[in-house]
Specification:
By secondary structure, the protein is of the alpha/beta class. It is built from 15 helices and 26 strands. An eight-stranded mixed sheet has the order 7-6-5-3-2-1-20-21. A six-stranded mixed sheet has the order 8-9-10-11-12-19. A six-stranded parallel sheet has the order 15-14-16-13-17-18, sandwiched between helices.
């Protein structure tokens, strides 16, 4: 009898690019296909994809892709994935609309985009999928009960136990109890907040904070959130309505997502509340709310452009209040706080989570994680969706609840987990690295390129052009082209030293040996700069021989 294999290709050991493979015999299903946003030191990278090399020679085995919800870290890679795998994509109605929009923006379409609904089971090869409703910061999110020939696997999706969600649809506790009665072999459970004690507050607590902002702000209120955070957009619209303000939506992705959610009935955004950005610029400021993106400090997003005064339609005005309704993703803190500082410089009053409860997490904290484990009592637990510290803490929490340590599997991306009814083993590792997307370039940017970009950004560079006569001897001084270091006017002594280092290096080279001259000059100039300034700019040398 074949073993059940679970292979995380993204989301374990990191926040983002969630993607999990479940395999039995010659049949595979994929759960989610998201992107990860780059850290501040990943210069030039737009976003990061999961590494799905493992699947390239198994295309005929893939029965379908099942999506838990519509956030970018779960659907963002689909535009690239469908180029490789022409398989059905199963998603709930709102998620399906967001997926379709995402694919259209890339000029792609899925050959089969199939609507799934909570509690409506469907089969994919040997797998029977039973979606169940969960609460998250976007409507229409689901977890998955996956019946396999080896046993029942429950994938929590992104969840929290919110009894008063914005959309009025609480978690499906009855379905969880049903799974428990049947016996759960493996629980794949969201670990994002495993370092947060207690319970994650309900989305409802934000309403009071938004009411206060709308009431007390003398001018416009500009709210930044994720474009796919439909529940938050709804709360902003309702708060604006209560305080006599109209709402404009700025930014292509947020406009698209808002229109999709409204058309599908997941967003109550009446025509009487809708204005354009152009309308907002003409109306009394105290009657205006503007929703935009850019909560992670992205310079090209709406809030980043406002902070840098580069937005084509808007600018920060006196008495504006900016609300950042999101937590910084780990690694983005520096960019977020820099954006906040720029907004303050421009005269805005900025409110973020450290000041007022304008954001709550969409993920379960420790007490909710305990509740899920105790409800399901799984034989095996695989913590998912989190950095290694989150996964480890989740595993320790499960031990406190009586799960055997050998039945808790804390792994990072790429590890192959093999299950039978009584045991789990880690069977090696497949590629689970970063695939960088830089504009139209996918996968051709590697760690060495990023290291070079980091060096260039920190230290700058020097190009030394060495002129040689027909006999291979140096003529005159080197031509120096520099970026990111002091200029010759600011530090003439430095450039004199560079010239002397270049001349000495040429003298120590074989006459006319251009390759050796280039190597020696680069090495000599680098050594001189290190010893005199402590800096390590990249040094390039070109030896040019005149005819």
């Amino acid at each position: 009898m074949p073993k059940l294999r679970i292979i995380p290709l993204g989301g374990l050991g990191e926040i983002g690019k969630n993607m999990t493979v479940i395999e039995y015999g010659n049949s595979i299903i994929i759960i989610d296909a998201g992107i990860m946003f780059p850290r501040s030191d990943m210069h030039g990278v737009d976003f990061i994809l999961p590494d799905w090399q493992y699947l390239l020679d198994k295309k005929d085995s893939i029965k379908g892709i099942v999506i838990t919800h519509g956030h970018e870290d779960h659907i963002g890679a689909l535009g690239h994935l469908v180029e490789e795998f022409d398989v059905p994509i199963y998603a709930t109605l709102l998620t399906q609309g967001l997926v379709k929009s995402r694919l259209q923006r890339r000029g792609k379409q899925a050959s089969k985009l199939i609507t799934m609904r909570p509690r409506q089971q469907f089969k994919l090869g040997p797998f029977r999928i039973d979606p169940f409703r969960v609460c998250h910061s976007i409507p229409d999110g689901v977890g998955l009960g996956i019946y396999t020939p080896v046993g029942l696997v429950v994938h929590s999706g992104d969840y929290k136990f919110d009894h008063t969600p914005v959309d009025g649809r609480p978690p499906d506790f009855a379905k969880l109890a049903e799974f428990a009665n049947q016996g759960v072999l493996v629980l794949l459970a969201d670990s994002t907040n495993s370092d947060k004690p207690g319970w994650t507050p309900s989305e409802a607590v934000i309403d009071g904070a938004f009411d206060q902002v709308m009431r007390d702000s003398p001018g416009r209120v500009i709210v930044a959130s994720f474009a796919s955070l439909i529940s938050r957009i709804q709360q902003v619209i309702l708060a604006a309505q209560r305080h006599g303000r109209k709402v404009a939506v700025a930014g292509r992705s947020m406009v698209d997502n808002t229109n999709i959610a409204r058309q599908l009935g997941y967003l109550d955004y009446p025509g009487s509340m809708r204005i354009t950005v152009a309308d907002a610029n003409k109306m009394p400021p105290e009657q205006v709310v503007i929703m935009t993106t850019g909560t992670q400090g992205e310079p090209m997003a709406g809030l980043g452009r406002l902070a840098l005064n580069r937005h084509r339609s808007l600018s920060i005005e006196k008495d504006d209040t900016v609300v950042i309704s999101a937590h910084p993703i780990p690694g983005n803190e520096e960019m977020v706080y820099q954006t906040i500082n720029y907004l303050f410089q421009r005269g805005a009053h900025v409110i973020y989570d450290a000041i007022a409860p304008v954001h709550v997490s969409g993920h379960a904290s420790r007490e909710e994680q305990k509740l899920l484990i105790n409800l399901l009592r799984p034989k095996f637990l695989v913590p998912i969706h989190g950095e290694l510290r989150h996964l480890t803490l989740h595993g320790e929490l499960a031990q406190e609840l009586g799960i055997e340590p050998d039945n808790i599997v804390v792994v990072e991306n790429g590890h192959i987990l093999e299950f039978d009814a009584d045991s789990v083993k880690v069977r090696g590792r497949v590629p689970g690295t970063y695939v960088y997307v830089d504009g139209a370039i996918v996968g051709d940017i590697g760690p060495s390129v990023l290291r070079e970009r980091r060096t260039l950004s920190r230290e700058g560079f020097i190009v030394a052009v060495i002129h040689l006569d027909s006999k291979g001897r140096m003529v005159g001084d080197a031509d120096l082209i520099t970026r990111g270091i002091a200029s010759s006017d600011e530090a003439p002594w430095l450039f004199d030293g560079i010239q002397k280092a270049a001349v000495e290096a040429v003298k120590q080279s074989h006459v006319g040996d251009e390759e050796q001259i280039e190597q020696n000059v680069s090495r000599s100039v680098s050594k001189y700069l290190r010893s005199t300034t402590g800096s390590r700019p990249m040094v390039f040398t070109v030896a040019s021989c005149s005819s």
